[in-house]
Amino acid sequence: MKLRFKKWTEEEFFEMRKEVLKGWPTGKDVNLEEAVAYHKALPESKSFSKKLVDAKNAGITLAQPRAGVALIEQHIELLDYLDKVGGADLLPTTIDSYTRQNKYENCEKGIEESKKAGRSLLNGFPGVNHGVSGCRQVVEAIDLPLQLRHGTPDARLLSEIMIAAGYTSDEGGGISYNVPYAKSVSLEKTLIDWQYVDRLVGWYEEHGVSINREPFGPLTGTLVPPSMSNAVGILEGLLAAEQGVKNITLGYGQCGNLIQDVAAIRALTEQGEEYFKEYGYNDIDLTTVFHQWMGGFPEDEAKAFGVISNGASAAALAGATKVIVKTPHEAIGVPTKEANAMGIKATKMVLNLLKGQQLSMSPELAKEIEVIKAETKCILNKVLELGEGDWAVGVVKAFEQGVLDVPFAPSKYNAGKMMPARDNVGKVRYLAVGNVPLSKELVDFNLAQLEERAKFEGRPVGFQMTVEDICSRKRNSYWKTRNWTYEKQLILLLKKKYKKYIIKLIE
Description:
Layout: H1 10-20, H2 32-41, H3 48-58, E1 62-64, H4 72-84, E2 91-94, H5 97-100, H6 104-117, H7 127-141, E3 146-149, H8 156-164, E4 169-171, H9 187-206, E5 212-214, H10 226-242, E6 247-253, H11 258-278, E7 285-291, H12 301-318, E8 322-324, H13 337-353, H14 363-386, H15 391-401, E9 419-422, E10 428-432, H16 440-457, H17 463-471, H18 485-497, H19 499-506
Parallel strand pairs: 1-8, 2-3, 3-4, 4-5, 5-6, 6-7, 7-8
Antiparallel strand pairs: 9-10
């Protein structure tokens, strides 16, 4: 199929669907008509879309963890614990790494080995292998709305099975689940694959069932300028809306400066609504999600709770519809259910304390919103220009030319010419714009902010700032961890991959 920004016909969708369902034997059990009837019989309390809209209208922020294990009974036990003990408002099913790469044979082995071991030997829930019947056991055992969370470039079969099972939200997109996650998967392929997912969700919508769609906002989670993540979020929102999706949650990953984080969510909301209306999508229920800090965590639990509480505060004060919760064991490994519940409880406590409060407008906040929206508009205007009016084609060309450029992404289709760094108060700025089409005024503004930091620290503006920001050794030092293995490897890769650009910065 040729990539284009156009709603698929039913013929196109169902023709591809024949092959999608052949991807694993459990695909044969998906029956759309039966699935629609099943969804309509579910209580409203299990509708992700409704709960998000109700929260938005009430002006409250909901708390949602990440969680997923290999076996159905253990997964139910985990989710029930996070509901009953943790007090989560929404629940996930995080998918394992093999499923994310469509390696279902490996999943099958992992399930069998997990049964023998009596514990999960997969890092998530293998939804495709469990099939509609297995996934429905989870839906029927849990009282809260469930979301499918993964990181899958090709999530067509996974989405078919888990939505048919009764899941009412699906996270991801053709950009956000490719560029930060995969090395060699083309943008054209993932955009088409995710158009399929969006058309599937649109089909449900047309038959009276609202499924929430949520692009993955944080991207790489490492020094991503808000305007870049907001541009990607709006693009994936437009792509979803064109296929008939009506309930969309746009996301953002915490950068660490309260003013910038609040500004990013508010800019995303305002600009998202503007673009939806401009292109004729007037009936979109738009909500937002704030992801707590995605970088290194302290091993000390008390300090970790400080980071979690900081993220909860930013989400509440920004007016985000929900917040994705971290745990005090982030620096150690996969959290226990007890640690996961503690992260939720800490977050909920902060959300309750700040209920009804939002950060008041100030000159600094207004300026930051203005800057983020202006930068985002520059990027989106160029994407549309490159696509000659076609957003989907424009995305592919924008990545080819570095107009869309996600920092530190593994994808070979990502230019990697843009370089970010923090300014003197911790806001993420463009250190080197690469081919990102910012106006001269915006380029000068970013450089001026970084020069303030350089003056304060008594050194020139340069790549070393970025290195230190990744490691958090000077900026936001309370987030630093004693486990530097990942950071050291990343820096070595950066120095290799970005060598020619680093030289230019130094010069």
